[in-house]
Amino acid sequence: MSNESRRGYNPREINGRARAGRPSSPPPHRRRRRRSNPWPAILLAALLVGAVAVGVVACSRQADPGSTSSESPSSSSELSGAAIPSSSSAADDPSSPSEPESTSSDSESASASSESSSSASEPEDLPASATTDGDWRLVLVNPTHKLNGDYDVELAPVNANYQLDARIVEDMQAMIAAAKEAGYSLQICSAYRSTDRSRVLYNNKVNQYKAAGYSDEDAAVEAAKWVAPPGTSEHNTGLAADIVSADYFTKYADLEHDFETFDEFKWLYANCADYGFILRYPKDKQEITGITYEPWHYRYVGREHAKKIMEQKICLEEYLGELD
């Protein structure tokens, strides 16, 4: 008997031990797939939306009515309501001065509901002043001289969508053509406006002041400084137009005093009298005209009168006083 048998040798047992001592290969490592948590992204988006909303509300509440006056209602433009400050805040500022007349789509009936929304007082129905010889070119229309209800004017188209008194269209077109030949492109952004349209724009401005906290009476007074009440606007005569550069509204959203820095304004100021027009509301005549400075507003008075007014650097009120 072999030693192995004596010792109780068992091949199966030995093989089993060997297998038990053999290192086994570890099970393959499985990576745990992490589930993405969507809440951080959702919270961040909500915060951004909230910040934008707060900014919009804050901007809409920044209404700081001014104290100077302006004849044009527009950016009312009739773009909406004019503006002295920066174009970014013009739409919300009740004291914005300009009034570029909007495109033809801004019809006089578009805001008819606004016409009856305000009971603002209007100036007395005083007749518009004329010169001693009754010259139609020198009719005086301002806050204290209102057009008679029977004032009539024959209109003719000028510069695309606008109309003026038919008697001045040729001179206006000649002035625009001369500017273009000199290298300056001009555009009319407001011309003839009916008294009904003026009433709508005036009431809109009154409502802006009331929304800013003004009383009915104070709102009417302040609005009249920026938007001429019906019958007191030169636009009702067909003898006045707001003129800016062709690219003006690519830089500004509304009429602003900055137009005086444009080369087109400098050309207009130097040459308008040659075509019978004057800068109607000079910067240093606001106390006399009752209207804020409007470097865009030009009024037809005829060549001989225009040359005298512009050379003397006076306003129409002063000139008519000299004639009287």
Characterise the protein shown here:
The termini are far apart. The radius of gyration is 37 Å and the shape is globular. The chain is α+β, with helices and mostly antiparallel strands and 324 residues long. The strands form two sheets. The chain has a four-stranded antiparallel sheet with strand order 3-4-6-5. Strands 1-2 form a two-stranded antiparallel ribbon. α6 crosses α7.
Strand order of the largest sheet: 3-4-6-5
Largest beta-sheet details: 4 strands, antiparallel
* Amount of beta strand: 5-15%
N-end to C-end Cα span: 158 Å
What's the Cα radius of gyration? 37 Å
What's the SSE pattern?
HHHHEEHEHHEHEHEHH
User: Which bin fits the share of residues in helices?
Assistant: 25-40%
Helix-and-strand structural type: alpha+beta
Q: Kindly report the average pLDDT value.
A: 76
Helix count, per DSSP?
Answer: 11
Q: Count the beta strands.
A: 6
The gross shape turns out to be: globular
Low-confidence stretches: 57-69, 73-91, 100-126
Task: Tell me briefly what this model is.
With 324 residues, the protein is α+β, with helices and mostly antiparallel strands.
Spell out the key features of this protein.
single chain, 324 residues, alpha+beta, 4-stranded antiparallel sheet, two-stranded antiparallel ribbon, 6 strands, globular
